[in-house]
Amino acid sequence: MLLSITANHTPATDLGYLLHKHPDRLQSFDLSFGQAHLFYPEVTEDRCTASLLLDVDPVGMVRGKGRKQSFLLDQYVNDRPYVASSFMSVAISQVLRSALNGRCNHRPELVETPLRLTSEINVLPVRGGEEFIRAVFEPLGYDVSTQTYPLDELFPEWGESPCFSVRLEGTKAVAELLNHLYVLIPVFDNRKHYFVGSDELEKLLARGAGWLADHPLKEQISRRYLKFKPSLYRSALARLVEEAQTDDLEAEEMDDALEEDLPEKTTSLNQQRHGSVLAALRASGARSVLDLGCGEGKLLRELMTDRQFEQIVGLDVSVRSLEIATKRLKLKQLPERQANRVKLLHGSLTYRDRRLEGFDAAALVEVIEHLDPPRLAALERMLFEFARPKTIVLTTPNREYNVMWESLPGGQVRHSDHRFEWTRAEFQNWAEQIADSFGYTVRFLSVGPEDKEVGAPTQMGIFERLEEG
């Protein structure tokens, strides 16, 4: 099976930097199912082509597997060595890992540069025909052309083969193209050669970040990628829908972002909030910290300046916010040791996520008020029951203080996306119930200028996990 990527701009040899593979050398890589060879059949200033050829060992890849067979010799007589499938996705992830992840140490400015690219896949087995190929790739901005083949030239009455040569043309960053191919190639025939579990769900969401949530066939793509496993594709669809809703809200928030921040500008309340959260995290002695609902990375940036925090992870449901955070924190330009200290994760706060377990502390800064009550209940279990960090620092608006801002009409919340804002008594009642239910203690602090009647604009709860046993 062969995948070719051609750059059609000047200098086209930039493709070699982006793929981390020198155009003058043939390179071979051992894989669990055979070998991959990467070479450049043409290299000029105006046109450069890189080809990834897989040489699959059809016997070696199944030796000792005990796989379910559709007929007696299915493990030995099949099309797997000759068609683009999950083998190609694995080869992309291993041979072109840096390019797939959007890293280019020698020419970092190229990573996000859209290039005129042509990709050819020979051949792709497709359940659904040319119409399905176009329905998958055209919404992503590709010009699609295909070529079909007869099952047997000697017996034309047998009809057409389900295999196609596919040519895609579009202006894309190389990492964007590779992520599309990584996810979509196995979708066309739904015959992954390895076990599909929860880690595949995370791969789908990570590699589909920024495009899958808006794809008109996201449901069909998710089902096929996850081999129709109900628990997996339902979870994937729920998280994709949540991402799409968040993106819609962000478009509105670009116009009315000052609605939440304007009343706070005179008191620099956001800075005071972050300062109070950082002080609480430092006092806890935490070495590993989660910033849940990290947004565009404002708190993460401050955490990174303190050497006490050796492991820093930010999680957000919005891919766009994570992209902004990546740029703001300059993660791709950091030295390797510093970059390994910080990680951004795409995910939801309302689903159990084993990546969030085992941390010393977690911060949720102005997050819970954006959740409807059923989703808030899901967050409670995810955070206090499953993730269970030793310390949780949580802030939320004090509704009583809203009367202090003339710019905020009476009875309104501070932001259109706030589902609720609690009084001090309501927040403390909720926090104490949560602490009692999940084995924590909680204490409360005020953040910002405090009024005798209505308190401070922000209220903060610091939860400490009780010693178990």
Automatic annotation (TrEMBL):
GO MF entries: metal ion binding; RNA binding; small RNA 2'-O-methyltransferase activity
Family: Belongs to the methyltransferase superfamily. HEN1 family.
Documented EC number(s): 2.1.1.386
NCBIfam families xref list: bacter_Hen1
Cofactor: Mg(2+)
Keyword field contains Magnesium: yes
Ranges where the Hen1 N-terminal domain occurs: 1-240
The organism's taxonomic lineage, starting at the top: Bacteria, Pseudomonadati, Planctomycetota, Planctomycetia, Planctomycetales
InterPro entries xrefs: 3'-RNA_MeTfrase_Hen1_bac, Hen1, Hen1_N, Hen1_N_sf, SAM-dependent_MTases_sf
Matches recorded under Pfam families: Hen1_L (PF12623), Methyltransf_23 (PF13489)
Keywords: Magnesium, Metal-binding, Methyltransferase, RNA-binding, RNA-mediated gene silencing, S-adenosyl-L-methionine, Transferase
Listed name of the protein: Small RNA 2'-O-methyltransferase
Biological process according to GO: regulatory ncRNA-mediated gene silencing; RNA methylation
Reaction it catalyzes: small RNA 3'-end nucleotide + S-adenosyl-L-methionine = small RNA 3'-end 2'-O-methylnucleotide + S-adenosyl-L-homocysteine + H(+)
Root EC class: transferase
